[in-house]
Design a protein that fits this description.
- The chain is built from four helices and four strands.
- By secondary structure, it is mainly alpha-helical.
- It folds into two domains: 74 residues, no CATH class; 50 residues, no CATH class.
- Strands 1-2 form a two-stranded antiparallel sheet. A two-stranded antiparallel sheet has the order 3-4.
- The longest helix is centred in the first third of the chain and has 31 residues.
- The protein binds zinc ion (2 copies).
C-alpha cells in the first residue's frame, strides 16, 4: 500500500465522513446563530433586525462583516438614557441659581442672600412678589413705583 492509496482510504473512511458532517453541522449552527444574534443586536441598536438577518441569511460571513461595519455604534437604550440625562441636567441648571455676590446656591425668589446678606430682589409693594432691583413696574400686578 503506497502513500497515495492510504490518503484515498483516509478520505473514504467513516471517520473522515463523520468529521466532515460534523464540520458542516458546526458551520450551519454558526450561521443560524449569527442570523439570530444580528437580528437581536440590530433591534437593540434601533435598526431593522429582519433586514440584517436576511442579509446574513443570503451572504453568510460576508453579510456578517458588512453588518459589523455598518451597524449603529450604540444601543438604543444607551442613547435614550443619555438624552434623559441631558434633559435632567438642563432642568437642574435652569432651577439652580447662585448669588452673584458669593456664588452660593440660592432660590430664584430670595430677596436677600442668606450667606452674604447681599440684596438680590425687592418685593413688590402691592403684591409682595420678588422683583429685580432695577425694575420700575411689577410684571405680576402691573403696579408701578
Ligand atoms: Zn451671597
Ligand atoms: Zn406686584
Amino acid at each position: 500500500m503506497d502513500s497515495f492509496s492510504s490518503i484515498l482510504s483516509f478520505f473514504s473512511s467513516p471517520v473522515f465522513k463523520m468529521s466532515t458532517r460534523l464540520f458542516i453541522l458546526f458551520l450551519f449552527i454558526l450561521w443560524v446563530s449569527a442570523i439570530f444574534w444580528a437580528y437581536r443586536d440590530a433591534e437593540k441598536r434601533g435598526t431593522i433586525g429582519t433586514y440584517w438577518a436576511a442579509v446574513i441569511f443570503f451572504f453568510n460571513i460576508f453579510g456578517l462583516i458588512i453588518y459589523l461595519i455598518l451597524r449603529p455604534p450604540e444601543y438604543l437604550a444607551d442613547v435614550q438614557e443619555r438624552e434623559l440625562e441631558i434633559i435632567a441636567k438642563e432642568e437642574a441648571l435652569s432651577l439652580e441659581r447662585t448669588c452673584y455676590g458669593c456664588h452660593k446656591p440660592i432660590k430664584p425668589d430670595f430677596l436677600i442672600c442668606p450667606y452674604c446678606m447681599k440684596r438680590l430682589k425687592k418685593s413688590c409693594p402691592a403684591c409682595n412678589r420678588p422683583l429685580n432691583l432695577d425694575w420700575n413696574i411689577c410684571p405680576y400686578c402691573k403696579s408701578s413705583f
